[in-house]
From TrEMBL:
Cellular component, GO, one term: cytoplasmic side of plasma membrane
Record-listed ATP binding positions: K55, G56, G57, V58, G59, K60, T61, T62
Free-text function comment from the UniProt entry: ATPase required for the correct placement of the division site.
Name used for this protein in its record: Putative septum site-determining protein MinD
Length: 314
């Protein structure tokens, strides 16, 4: 599948579907999530999505784990690739660290088969993890984008069938590791926090993604605090959207459950009952699946007064 065919012609900011005042209900999260139906997969498979940011520590790995497991819970087959080579930690967030015996480097060296390097999640068997290398190891000379393209092709040709989604957890920065991680992708999820340093990096990364031919870029605004936004101590999501001009995939509130779930190796979206951040990741997964064709009811109530967080009940 060519990048050009996968990307929409003109990426446009996400606009909420406004409802008439009379039809506004209590901004029910349940109506937004539409648990009673399976999201309709848009686009050709595999959808190869790189999760990137520029700045480190903004939530790429958290997003990959939670969006990935949400997709698997909706019945899509997902392979999550940890392309953060020296500092891999997706396995920890997923609680799969003890089951990673082989990595892509061993597959490329011919020391094991691809299926031996794929770690199947016991909770959702349609979710698999693939690590590029062992922790603290350095990439072999010559490892680059071509190796990842080969890997994606090999995943497409597996006997089990082509996965619906290949999510690539990108390392921070814009050097060789970043270039390698974005090479096979035909769409990107840009994770940013609403602060000026993260936004500057996100803007730079957006330019680099576009130069690489990735036109389909959506953003997740993470660690948002409504109390700070109300006191005008934090940029609002609308401000972020205006600055970056990207389609909005999701807004994730700051939530101490994220840290707790990270330490337990039990992604937030699996929590019962779900927390706000968990619901927000689920919603982002929905939008990723349905792309521009998404028909979900998103109610924005008077954005200038109440802001984006009206749908969180804020
Ligand atoms: N919405 C959130 N609320 C609270 N903590 C968060 C949130 N998102 C991420 N974190 C925390 O931020 C830290 C960095 O997240 P991580 O996903 O590893 O970032 P990255 O992969 O971009 O380096 C982790 O400790 C994680 O638990
Ligand atoms: Mg990370």
């Amino acid at each position: 599948m060519s990048r050009e065919s996968a990307a929409p012609q003109t990426p446009k900011p996400y606009h909420y579907q406004r409802t008439k005042p009379s039809s506004r209900n209590k901004s029910s999260t349940r109506s937004v999530l539409q648990y009673n139906r399976k999201p309709q997969l848009a686009g050709e498979t595999p959808r190869v999505v790189v999760i990137t940011s520029g700045k480190g520590g903004v939530g790429k790995t958290t997003t990959t784990a939670n969006v990935g497991l949400s997709l698997a819970r909706h019945g899509f087959s997902v392979v999550a690739i940890d392309a953060d080579v020296g500092l891999r930690n997706l396995d920890l967030l997923l609680g799969l660290e003890n089951r990673v015996n082989y990595t892509v480097i061993e597959v490329l060296n011919g020391d094991c088969r691809l299926d031996q390097a794929l770690v199947r999640d016991k909770r959702w068997s349609n979710f698999e993890l693939l690590c590029i290398s062992k922790p603290r190891s350095k990439l072999p000379i010559g490892f680059g984008g071509k190796a990842l393209v080969w890997l994606v092709d090999a995943l497409k040709d597996r006997q089990e069938g082509c996965p619906d989604f290949i999510l690539i957890d990108c390392p921070a920065g814009i050097d060789a590791g970043f270039i390698t991680a974005i090479t096979p992708a035909n769409e990107a999820v840009l994770v940013t926090t609403p602060d000026i340093t993260s936004l500057r990096d996100a803007d730079r990364v957006t330019g680099l993604l576009e130069c690489d031919g990735i036109k389909d870029i959506k953003m997740i605004v993470n660690r948002v605090r409504t109390d700070l936004i109300r006191g005008e101590d934090m940029m609002s999501v609308l401000d972020v959207q205006e600055m970056l001009g990207l389609a909005l995939l999701g807004v994730i509130p700051e939530d101490s459950e994220v840290i707790r779930s990270t330490n337990r190796g039990f992604p937030l979206v699996l929590n019962k009952p779900p927390t706000l951040a968990g619901l927000a990741f689920e919603q982002a997964a929905w939008r990723l699946v349905e792309q521009d064709s998404m028909q979900a009811v998103m109610v924005e109530e008077e954005p200038k007064k109440r802001g984006f967080f009206s749908f969180f009940g804020g």
